[in-house]
Write a structure and sequence with these properties.
117 residues; alpha/beta; five-stranded mixed beta sheet; two-stranded antiparallel ribbon; globular
């Protein structure tokens, strides 16, 4: 599902889906998503498949990782040996933001995090 905001931001919310070809044709080519809210749960997608989606199929400006179904942080810091850490390492330099309780992030129309990052 994609949503476009008045500032031009277009967000792709993956939901519980695995990798599929429509990510390229619909999410990237048609909707031109520049922010992805990616469900990284174990029943949704593997870290390597998720990295392929982000790097090759829909390359957004930024990614917010959601619903990891594992402890990902301690004191707001990323834990090693998690699927989320593996995903981040595979993505490389693209900004990946962790969804932290009580923290609000703001994105500009280009998908760049401008507050709460």
């Amino acid at each position: 599902m994609s949503s476009k905001f008045t500032n031009g931001l277009t967000v792709y919310l993956s939901g519980d889906t695995g990798i599929h070809a429509d990510m390229k044709t619909i999410v990237h080519d048609f909707h031109k998503a520049n922010l992805a809210a990616l469900n990284l749960g174990p029943n949704a997608i593997t870290p390597d498949a998720a990295a392929f989606v982000i790097n090759e199929l829909i390359p957004p400006a930024s990614v917010v990782v959601s619903h990891p179904n594992e402890a990902v942080t301690a004191d707001g810091k990323l834990l090693p040996n998690t699927r989320t850490k593996a995903f981040i390492d595979l993505v490389g330099t693209r900004p990946i933001h962790l969804a932290l309780s009580g923290k609000t992030m703001e994105f500009d129309g280009n998908g760049k995090c401008v507050a709460g990052c």
